[in-house]
Amino acid sequence: MRVTLRQLHIFSAIAELGSTTAAAASIPLSQSATSAALAELESLLGSALFDRVGKRLILNETGRALHVRARAALNAAMEIERDFGVGGGAEHAFPPAHIRLGASTTIGNYVMPARIAQLQRELPRIAVELRIGNTQDVVNAVLRMEVDAGLIEGPCHADGLEVQHWATDRMVIVAAADHPFAMLGRPVSALELGKERWLLREGGSGTRELLDQLLLPHLGGFASSTQLGDTEAIKQATAVGLGIACLPLCTVGDQVALGRLVILHTALPLLDRPLYCIRHQFKKFSAPLDALLAAESEVGAKSCGTASRDSPHEAHL
Does a structural domain hold residue 262? Predict the structure, then answer.
């Protein structure tokens, strides 16, 4: 591109003030440099832009057509400078941005909406597009750079990605508010838990595999179980007494607050599941994306104060 904003700036100043002398004083620039810049622009465009009337310069028809476009270009440049805080104050610390984020199901449905809302309250010029899928879907989207970052619930070993621990996913064992375990007055034993009907995800799901690995060694098996297709279905079925379940704390806070679910105190050891943030190895995070993805400690802990990480009688996964 050979036409510069500097040339258009000088041209517009001359057009609006009527002489190179006045334009030079307003920019500021020397009169000879202003005249040279105008001559260079006219030579580049192959056309005179002014009629010379004595010492005054009056736009000709070509100059008038250029002036409209020049002002539009200069206004656009000033908007860019304003939005990106060039010469501005702290209110422009974050320029406008369109963030594309991938998240696996639990994180996307239960954790990120509140974080996105908080970010946009603080930075209303930031737009966030959230794509929800299983862990492999998110990994693939990050690899193809279809999203700026991904948040996943399982490990990732894909080449070309940087993987960082982002948060600990707390899971709790829950039952309906009128379940006998809710009134037991002591921690529920592993033997008692094993005799209950469990509401589980289908075989092959990441959540089910993790439950099998971490719960079955303590329970010795599920004496009775019912498989349901997603977390929300399990949560609602548990609330009406169909069985008990082990679910992420961040997914049950609403039902606990309404008194439909209770978090059971158990004799099981603490169990944690790490959540990960993944990015393409060549991706550099913007400041708004860094703010959105500021590392959590435990997801769900703020939304449901009925469970404490320090309690020895709650299941954490």
Answer: yes
Residues in CB range of 200: below 8 A, 6 or more apart: 208, 211, 222, 225, 226, 227, 228, 234, 245
Condensed to tens digits (0 to 9), the pLDDT of residues 139-151 reads 999 999 999 999 9
- Cα separation, 141 vs 49, in Å, equals 51
CB atoms within 10 A of CB 102: 26
Task: Decide if 308 is inside a domain.
Answer: no
Question: At CA 294, angle to CA 289 and CA 300, rounded to 5?
Answer: 120
Whole-number Å distance between alpha carbons of 194 and 94: 52
Q: What is the pLDDT of residues 196-251, one digit of tens each?
A: 999 998 876 767 887 888 888 888 888 899 999 889 999 999 999 999 999 999 99
Give domain status of residue 46, yes or no.
yes
What is the number of residues in the chain? 317
Q: For the chain, what is the domain count?
A: 3
* CATH number, domain with residue 215: 3.40.190.10
One-letter-per-residue 3-state SS of 154-199: CCCCCCCEEEEEEEEECEEEEEECCCHHHHCCCCECHHHHHCCEEE
How far is it, in rounded angstroms, from Cα 240 to Cα 235? 9
For residues 203, 208, 212 and 214, what is the CA-based torsion angle, rounded to 10 degrees? 170
Rounded CA separation 107/7 (Å): 51
How many C-beta atoms surround the C-beta of residue 271 within 10 A? 19
List of residues 6+ apart from 168 with CB closer than 8 A = 272, 273, 274, 275, 296, 297, 298, 299, 316
Residue with tokens 């000709």: 60
Range of the domain at 52: 5-90
DSSP code per residue over 55-110: TEEEE-HHHHHHHHHHHHHHHHHHHHHHHTTTT--GGGSS--EEEEEEEEHHIIII
State yes or no: pLDDT of 192 exceeds 60.
yes
Whether residue 95 is preceded by a cis peptide bond, meaning omega within 30 degrees of 0, is no
